[in-house]
Write a structure and sequence with these properties.
This protein is mainly alpha-helical. It has one domain. Helices cover about 50% and strands about 10% of the residues. It is built from 3 helices and 2 strands; from the N terminus they run H-E-H-E-H. It is globular and about 40 Å long.
Amino acid sequence: MANLDGAIHAAMATIFELDALISWNLRHLSNLRKMEMINGINMREGYRKRLELITPMEVSDEEI
């Protein structure tokens, strides 16, 4: 189920041309290999805007 949910989130982010999809799901979404795969499929299907898959820590402006 988690893979299907992630696929739906990525598809919706692509269709609505979001800049990024922010997720804690490092195994299934927020990793470079998955991002390249999703963007390759998107390009093949005619979507030209690149989707960034990132974690909340990558967009946080707070220092730890």
